[in-house]
Amino acid sequence: MGQTLIAIDVSRTRARVVELDNALRRSRVTATYTIDLDPDAEDTTRWETVREGLRQEPDSLIVAIDSRNVSTRVLSFPFSDPKKIEAALDFELESQIPYDLDDVVATWTVTERSDEGATVLTAITPRSRFAESLDAMKIADLEPRAVAMPAVALAELVSTHSADTVAVVSLGYRESHLAIVRDGLRFARTVRTGGVAVDRRLSAHYNVSETDARRAKENEARLVSDRSRVSPEIAELSEQVEIGVRPILRELIATFRSLPSDDQPSVLLLTGGFSRLPGLPEYLSRRLGIDVELLDLAAVADSMTGDTRSGEQAASAVPVAPEFAPALALGLSQLRRGGQLPLNFRKGEFRYSGDFAAYRGEIVRIGVGLAAVFLIALVGSVVRLSILNGEEARIDRGFCEATKTIIGNEVCNPQQAIAILKEPANSAAGVVIPTYSASDVLDALSGLLNEDLDVRFEDLELKVAGRVDEPDTIAGKAEAASFEDIEKIVATLKEDPCIQDVEASRQKKTRDSSRVEFNISIDLQCPTGVLPGSAIASSEQL
Predict the structure, then answer these.
(1) What is the pTM assigned to this prediction?
(2) Neighbouring residues of 328: CB distance < 8 A, sequence distance ≥ 6
(3) For the chain, what is the mean pLDDT?
């Protein structure tokens, strides 16, 4: 039996639900349905209504974030390392958003990576509003694994399309989601318009209620390319519908013009409830100058496991209507991406922590696999035990050869080798055992640098030469308050008789502060009878 994944796309007045059964070798859509919501109710009440309306208990849940509270930005970085991007993200966002960073939740995904750097799509939402929404879902006994942007998830619906660059738009009632796809997601946004613009236009023109206008739109409205061939009434209705569609057209044109030339789409795929309007694909194709097609969600659902289930196709027994496209896209994104789902706001302090229920089947299979590995390891141990004697002989031989390299003579007895090293330098070809430890050196450095010197060391490495004619070295990175402090640090360290030389190189200002970072190299060789830090001890006695 598979796991039940439920994806929910929530608006002010309804929740679109797609249920998917996710088994080991196949996944399929098992149900799609709508739950009506009270737009004036509190969040907790609305989510309780959703919880009561679910037909199955979810093993895994993904929810669309309220797009009205989300803002997106495209950022460019001169590097592509994810760790560097994450470290620099706040610095770049701070100058582009009118909010304090502590007041928002940010998430990001790399849309393009090259040798020159990376392009990153980021999204932010108010922290307090997001926390309240999660609390409302928790009170309603709903714990989503992910809360993501539907526009981003739409890329999953066109992942196998043959065109170079594809735009997919889900036209809803009050908002529409748009994604640009070329070798993965390139851009995504949500526009605050949809079928309601046509309703309002018809309501104003014909002086009827928006409810009646919507009914007329769904039953009679269409876009006609040649109005001379239809009756005056149909021509007039088509003209008013076209006026209502223009806000959507303007948003699409503005978005396409803002994209780089490589990301200009050659085809636009339509889905969403408003895509049912007759004549809409042909109208948009004429205005945009590109091919416009209706997206076949049934084909998407039937082939949705082609990327992840060993090539096996899983037929969907449930038809998927266009208005369920965002929810289906969210479900597919969760199936295919899992923890790597792009622009998931459940990160950091809001991350999902209840993974056991969703992965209990995987855990059982892992347990069986671990048992098999244990049996194989047991057999391997028996085999390895039979060759230990040979390994021991080879190790002994290696010790003998090492002493010949270090001392000059082959000494196979460890105690004898240590005794030779403890003899005066002349009797062991200059080989010595240091009279101080790494902790002694660190203690000496700490004592030399008083509290007036603002310095912090990182990744210090002590390399012991082990010979009387070669100095030991200390190398690493450090950070000081100013260039003047670095000069004081070098001068202070040279006061110790054991420190022969100090070099501070590659000095430069840090990117996010006024401090100075630099590399430090110290040559350490103490005179006979002197230990690191002895100058400090002498001054304290005085």
Answers:
(1) 0.64
(2) 7, 18, 29, 32, 157, 297, 300, 301, 320
(3) 83
